[in-house]
Amino acid sequence: MSDNLLQRSVTAGVARNLATTTKTAPQMMSITPRWLLRLLPWVQVDGGIYRVNRTRVELPKAQRIAVEISAGTASFAPEALRSVPLFSRLPDAIITRMVQRVKTENVSLGNPLIVEGEDLSKFFIIAQGQVEVLSKGAHGSDLRIALLTEGEYFGEGDLVSGRPSDVTVRTITPCILLTLSRRDLEAVLAEAPTLSEHFRRAVEEHFELQSVVNRYGERNIDLVSGFAENVEIPETFVDYSAQPREYSLSAVQTVVRVHTRVSDLYNDPYDQLQEQLRLTIEGIKERQEWELINSQKFGLLHSADPAMRISTRYGTPTPDDLDELLALVWKKPAFLLAHPKAIAAFERECTWRGVPPVTANLFGSPVITWRGVPLVPCDKLEVTSRYQSNQWLGKTSILLVRVGEADQGVVGLHQTGIPGELMPSLSARLMGLDALGVASYLLTLYFSCAVLTDDALGILENVEVGYYHAYEHRESSGFDNGLGI
Q1: Residue 2: per-residue pLDDT
Q2: 368-388 average pLDDT score
Q3: pTM score, two decimals?
Q4: Are β-strands 373-377 and 365-370 bridged in parallel, bridged antiparallel, or unpaired?
Q5: Could you give the 3-state DSSP secondary structure of residue 406?
Q6: Is 324 helix (H, G, I), strand (E, B) or coil?
Q7: What are phi and psi of 462, to 5 degrees?
Q8: Distance of CA 276 to CAs 254, 428, 435, 444, Å?
Q9: Is there a contact between 56 and 239 (Cβ–Cβ < 8 Å)?
Q10: What mean pLDDT comes out for the span 111-115?
Q11: Cα(102)–Cα(74) distance, rounded to whole angstroms?
C-alpha cells in the first residue's frame, strides 16, 4: 500500500464527535419588522373598554352603497339608498318605490354621462368601474375635481334641482351603472297623493340643515368677530354624540404544549420552554399586526371613512396619487403604510418621472419618504390577485395615518399589568400537566385599535402593483451604460 493512502491523522469526520457544536436559536422566516406595532402610540385601557366621544353630527355624511352584481345585473338593498344624505330623511314608502325604478346600464370607456351646461337630471350609482368629474377652469381647460369608483354616486342634486349641471362626468373604464331618471322619480311621486309632499319636505329639511352645519356635518359654533359696537354676542354650545363608539379589547390566544422530559433534559444551551414561548409569541405579534389592519371590527382598512378613500388615477401608485392622499390627511401625517410590492411600484413610477424619493433612517433601517413622510413596508396589507398561484400580483391599498390622542389620531389599545404578563398586555399561564407529562401554557394577547376622528386615516385604493415601464435603449454621443436605459 502506498504511503499516501495510509491514514496519517484522525479524520475530521471522527474528530467532530468530540467537538462542541456552535448553535443558533431557532430561526423563523415569518417574522417581520412589524413597523405598525412600533409606530402606533399605545393607550392603557382600564376595564377593557375604550370609548371615543365625538361631537354630534347633525347631517349624515355620504356612505358608499354596497352593490351586488349577478349575471350582469346590479342590485342593492333599499335601505342602502339612505347612504345618500339627500335621501336620508325620505319615508320608507318612497325609498322602496325609487329602488324598484332603478335601471342597470352598461357603459363603455370614454362615454360622457353628464355634460356641463345640459340638464340631464339623472342619478347614478357606480356598480363597477370608475368615472371622472371635470369642471372648466378659469382658463377654459378641463380640471379633474373628483375620481369616483364602485359604491359611489353622483347626480342626486341635479335630480331634484332642475338646473343645468355645472360639471362634466365621463367614464374612464367600462362601467356598470345603476340609474334613476327624473321621469322615473316623478312617476314614483305620482303613485300616491302624499308622496310628493313628503319628498318635498324631506329635501327642504336637508337643505335647511345643510346651511347650519360645517363640512364635517357638525353644527356651526355661533361667533361674532370685529370691532363693531352694540352687537349682541351670540349664545352657543357644543353637543355630543348620544351613542359614542366603544372598543372592546380583542384577544389572540393559543396553548403551547411542552413535554416535561424535553424541558428537563434538553435545556442546554437553549431553554426549550423559553424558545417555544418566544417563537409562539412572534406568531402572536404577527397576527396582532394583521388584525390591526384587516379586522372587520376595528382594522384600519375597514375603519376609514368613505370620504377619506380615494382611488388611483391609472392603477399604478403615482406621486400625484400620494400627493392627493397627503391632501386628505394633511393635519400632521405620521407615516404611510404599504405592501413592499406597492412601494416597489411607487418607486418605479418615481424612476419613470425622474423624481427619486428621499431615503431616511427608521429604527436603524432605511425607508423611503415622500414629502418627508416615511413610506413603511408591511406585508399585512395584502395583495388581492386574480391568480390563486401568485399572491404578489394584483391590487392593494396604501394607508396614511395620523397618530396620538393629542392630535385626534389613530391609537393602539392595550391593558398592562394583567396576571402572568410577559410583555405589555401579553400573558402566559400554566394550565397544568396531563397524564403523559405534557405541560400546557395559555398565551393571551389583548389589544385593539381606535380611529379618534375620521380625518386621521386615509386610504389610496385600487393600487396596481404589476405594471413595469418599457425603457427604450438609448445610445447618445456613443455612450451606452449596458443596461439599456
Answers
A1: 56
A2: 89
A3: 0.87
A4: antiparallel
A5: coil
A6: helix
A7: 55, 45
A8: 12, 12, 21, 15
A9: yes
A10: 89
A11: 10
What pLDDT shows up at residue 449?
Answer: 97
Cα–Cα distance measured from residue 401 to residue 450, given in angstroms and rounded to the nearest whole number: 12
Q: Which of 158, 222, 210 minimizes the C-alpha distance to 185?
A: 158
Q: Indicate the DSSP class of residue 446.
A: E
Long-range contacts (CB closer than 8 Å, 24 or more residues apart) made by 76-80: 76/125, 76/178
153 three-class SS: strand
Q: Are 124 and 178 in contact (CB under 8 A)?
A: yes
Q: Cα(first)–Cα(last) distance of the chain, in Å?
A: 65
Task: Assess whether pLDDT exceeds 90 at residue 95.
Answer: yes
pLDDT tens digits, 246-256: 999 999 999 99
DSSP element (H, E) containing 204: helix 193-210
Reduce the DSSP state of residue 5 to 3 states and report it: helix
The residue-averaged pLDDT of 328-332 equals: 96
Residue for grid cell 375620521:
454
12 vs 390, residue with greater confidence: 12
pLDDT on residue 44:
97
Is the distance from CB of 440 to CB of 293 less than 8 angstroms? no
Helical packing angle, 182-189 and 193-210, nearest 10°: 120
CA distance 399 to 116: 34
Q: Choose among 403, 410, 450, 453: nearest CA to 295.
A: 450
Compute the distance between CA of residue 381 and CA of residue 36 in angstroms, rounded to an integer.
Answer: 11
156: left (phi over 0), alpha (psi -120 to 50) or beta: alpha
* Ramachandran class of 181: left when φ > 0, alpha when ψ lies in -120 to 50, beta otherwise: beta
More confident residue, 296 or 235: 296
Q: Are 131 and 117 in contact (CB under 8 A)?
A: no
pLDDT digits (tens, 9 = 90+) for 27-44: 999 999 999 999 999 999
Mapped onto helix, strand or coil, the DSSP state of residue 293 is helix
Question: If you search the block for the grid coordinates 393600487, which residue do you land on?
Answer: 463
What angle, rounded to 10 degrees, do the helices at 92-101 and 182-189 form? 140
Stated as kind and residue range, the H or E segment containing 359 is: strand 358-362
The pLDDT of residue 3 is 56
Q: Is the pLDDT of residue 480 over 50?
A: no
Task: Tell me 420's DSSP state.
Answer: T
Query: In this predicted structure, what is the pLDDT of residue 386?
Result: 64
From the number of C-beta atoms within 10 Å of its C-beta (0-12, 13-18, 19+), residue 259 rates as middle
Local confidence band at 159 (pLDDT 50, 70, 90 cut-offs): confident
Judge if the upstream peptide bond of residue 234 is cis by omega within 30 degrees of 0: no
d(CA 310, CA 288): 26
pLDDT at 485 over 50: no
CB 446 within 8 A of CB 249: yes
C-alpha angle 289/291/296, rounded to 5°? Answer: 155
Nearest to 60 by CA among 89, 96, 80, 92: 89
